[in-house]
Design goal:
about 240 residues, alpha+beta, Arc Repressor Mutant, subunit A, Beta-Lactamase, 2 domains, six-stranded antiparallel sheet, two-stranded antiparallel sheet, 10 helices, 8 strands, globular
Length: about 240
């Protein structure tokens, strides 16, 4: 089926943006993903960057720009955030721990929603907090299903390796203890969009002494159930 709009330059620009939905991309990776010539891919990416639809990460790779989030917020159509409150609240109540939702933005992951533990010692992560992709179970989830060619670069300096991410893909969830911050443990699972692409990571986190030696055994089932609920909420409505 022909998906062309009849406006060639627009179709090509959308191909560039679509390729960046999967994560950061070098110019060579953009060329491979879009099938465009190198000069055309570069020209379009730079033009989109001018309009803040594309930006660059710390390694100079192209990433989706801030304009997309601004448009989503203005339209009130950020479905992830819209459904997050009750789902994270239920996860917090089921586990007794703070629950968060993270979305990737270039070299960082950003907390876009949170349900804090109501009593006792908390692992406070405010909405808007930006963390590197080098440590933590949410970072593992957001990277585990990434393109292998990108991973070879993204794992440089990370507190986990390709073998750990292979385990995440096999289990469907990630856990960490003291990886992002000493004394803090977490368990995370992927939230997927209608196409199956990983859009976000849902997590519970708290003091490592409360999570025990095997955080996943304690909380993986609840986190996976919440991730599935997010994914279901993002499915097209009949």
């Amino acid at each position: 089926m022909d998906k062309s709009s009849g406006v060639g330059v627009l179709d090509k620009a959308v191909r560039v943006l679509g390729a960046l939905e999967a994560g950061p991309a070098s110019l060579a990776q953009l060329v491979t993903a879009t099938g465009l010539s190198r000069p055309t891919a570069h020209r379009l990416a730079v033009a989109l960057e001018h309009h803040r639809l594309v930006s660059r990460d710390l390694r100079g790779r192209f990433v989706l720009g801030e304009r997309h989030a601004e448009w989503a917020a203005a339209a009130g159509e950020d479905r992830l955030v819209a459904v997050a409150g009750p789902l994270l609240g239920a996860l917090r109540d089921a586990t007794g721990e703070s629950a968060q939702l993270y979305r990737r933005h270039g070299d960082h992951r950003v907390c876009i929603a949170v349900a804090e533990r109501l009593h006792g010692l908390r692992d406070t992560v405010p909405v808007g907090a930006s963390m590197t992709m080098n440590a933590g179970s949410a970072a593992q989830v957001l990277l585990a299903w990434d393109d292998p060619e990108r991973l070879s670069v993204e794992l440089v300096g990370a507190r986990f390796d390709a073998a750990a991410l292979s385990g995440v893909r096999r289990r469907g969830w990630a856990h960490s203890s003291g990886e992002r911050e000493a004394g803090v443990a977490s368990v995370s699972a992927p939230v997927r969009g209608p196409s199956g692409r990983v859009l976000a990571a849902v997590s519970v986190s708290g003091p490592a002494e409360r999570f025990g030696r095997h955080p996943g055994r304690r909380h993986a089932d609840a986190v996976l159930a919440t991730a599935a609920a997010f994914t279901a909420a993002l499915a097209p409505q009949n």
